[in-house]
Design brief:
By secondary structure, the chain is an alpha/beta fold. It has nine helices and 14 strands. The chain has helices at 2-25, 82-87, 94-103, 119-122, 125-131, 141-148, 258-267, 269-272, 303-316, and strands at residues 53-56, 62-65, 70-73, 109-113, 136-139, 158-160, 167-169, 172-179, 213-220, 223-228, 245-249, 276-280, 320-321, 330-331. It has a seven-stranded mixed beta sheet with strand order 6-5-4-3-2-1-14, covered by helices on one side. A seven-stranded mixed beta sheet has the order 7-8-9-10-11-12-13, with helices on one face. Helix 9 (303-316) links the parallel strand 12 (276-280) and strand 13 (320-321). Helix 5 (125-131) packs across helix 6. The longest helix has 24 residues, at 2-25. The protein starts with a helix and ends in a 9-residue tail after the last strand. The model is unreliable at 335-340 (pLDDT under 50).
Length: 340
């Protein structure tokens, strides 16, 4: 009896420890509030209609707006929970997307540029394309096949990326630059795989193959912006480029070796020499869009450590780090830049 009791007690303690570990791993990897010094605080000053601004909605969803026209990078708003992602087929929430469109006047969106085809970048592309029939969807062959899964999307809306060939929408001149995804993980080991037929939603998250990754150089009346969603680089790909603002993906940066971290920063931040660097792809995208952005859970990353690595590197070259932690308009026009 004592042996059985001892086994039961041991099992109970093991289960308690296991539950405690799981609870810890699902906690945010730090507190966004600890980075108040770098957070952008919206100014009460009303921007003029000609001011170029950006809104950050989490992951790498960025809305660039000059008051007349818009371009959107990615467009991931539905943000299904971790439980749904792991155990269910996922799909967009049409009513949520309609609200996002109305609230942000996305009817003015000229084009949606997609960085790669994982679900946290493309899940809402089919419904966005349907509800914004005048907007072009620009991405890899895999991304376009995700859009084609919606029968209400017009083929003439879809444009496959031509690397290094600029495309112009209103005052925005955008160039797609071939890039590399963040190094693979056990649940994200599909780099280079493609979606070869229309993908109909709902679908498993694993069906959203990477399909190739791209950075986007955005030029607006002499102002240069680079959006790099993933923590990966092609060596010397950006060596002849300098930008004013860099949107830099830092997902899983802290999980990589120090050599990888330094090479990544060499190829991006130190090469591009931006005046301002805005970290992206640091937030917990399993949290709903109506909740405040928080760091990824420890299970996925150590976002606080990744952000501190970037802050230290930016400090060494006097680049200003701006943390966008809510979907408010951040002015990109130099004259309206303010300290975070």
């Amino acid at each position: 009896m004592s042996i059985k009791k001892g086994i039961l007690i041991s099992l109970a303690l093991f289960m308690l420890c296991l539950v405690a570990v799981i609870i810890f791993l699902l906690q945010p990897s730090g507190q966004v509030e600890n980075f108040e010094k770098w957070q952008y605080q919206a100014s009460k000053k009303i921007a003029t209609p000609s001011t170029l601004s950006v809104k950050f909605f989490g992951v790498s969803t960025l809305l660039f707006d000059d008051g007349k026209s818009q371009i959107l990078i990615d467009g991931f708003f539905t943000r299904p929970s971790l439980t749904k992602v792991l155990f269910e087929k996922i799909h967009s929430q049409p009513e949520l997307i309609k609200h996002v469109i109305q609230h942000n006047q996305l009817q003015r969106t000229q084009a949606i540029f997609v960085t790669h085809s994982h679900y946290d970048h493309t899940l809402d592309i089919p419904i966005l394309a349907e509800l914004l029939p005048k907007a072009k969807i620009i991405g890899s062959a895999s991304t376009l096949n995700i859009a084609r899964g919606n029968p209400y999307v017009f083929e003439q809306q879809l444009i496959q990326i031509e690397p290094w060939k600029p495309i112009t929408f209103a005052n925005f001149r955008v160039t797609a630059i071939p890039s590399r995804h963040t190094p693979p993980t056990a649940v994200n080991n599909d780099l280079g795989e493609e979606i070869t037929a229309p993908l109909h939603l709902p679908a498993r998250f694993s069906e959203f193959k990477e399909g190739g990754s791209f950075d986007y150089l955005i030029e607006y009346q002499g102002y240069k912006i680079l959006v790099k969603a993933s923590t990966g680089t092609v060596p010397e790909q950006l060596k002849n480029l300098k930008v004013d603002t860099l949107f830099l993906g830092i997902a899983q940066l802290s999980r990589q070796s120090e050599a990888f971290q330094q090479n990544y920063l060499d190829q991006t931040l130190r090469t591009l020499q931006p005046k301002v660097v805005v970290p992206i792809h640091w937030d917990n995208f399993f949290k709903a869009a109506d909740q405040p952005l928080e760091f990824l859970p420890y299970l996925a990353d150590n976002s606080e450590k990744s952000l501190n690595i970037l802050i230290q590197a930016a400090k060494q070259q006097n680049s200003q780090v701006v943390l966008l932690s809510q979907a408010v308009s951040y002015p990109l026009t130099p004259a309206l830049h303010s300290k975070p």
